[in-house]
Amino acid sequence: MSDALSSSVNVGVSMTPQEVPPRLSSPSIEDLRQLLAQAPARQRLTDEQAEALYSQGYAQMGVGQWALAVDHFEMLAIYRPDHPRYLRALGLAYRQDRRLEQALQVQRMLDALAPGDPVHSMDLAETLIALGRRGAALIALEMTQVRCSRDPARAELGRQAQAMLAMLRPTQGADHA
To answer: What are phi and psi for residue 157, nearest 5 degrees?
Structure first.
């Protein structure tokens, strides 16, 4: 685990040096998950600690360290599984780390948790395109357009969806060339 992560996330699990297994002297994300799972609910992540993890994950994304970002966002998903911002970050980090099936799973769950949000259907469409699932991507882009049409503040996203639809749809006569 990075020093930044360990210094900002105090999960409230206290162990004496004799209780800490030797391999935990520099715990991994998996080690931290196991410790958190053993902690009483009140000692898991506070809102401030969750935000610190999110900020660190976002910073990792900003410098292209996708696997480290995934570690941070997976931790958040464990303890905040219904938090749209954390789940969206996890899905995007998975996609950037080329874990496309995992990204798709998270993005579908997010779209179900926050139905009607065009940002989530656009994220889903982009992942489907990356997976080569053109037909499903077309449906997600059409859904994005419909959702954007209901919210004038989302007009630009609607135009992006329209442009992507135009690129993905076959042109008249292209199949016969």
So the answer is: -65, -35
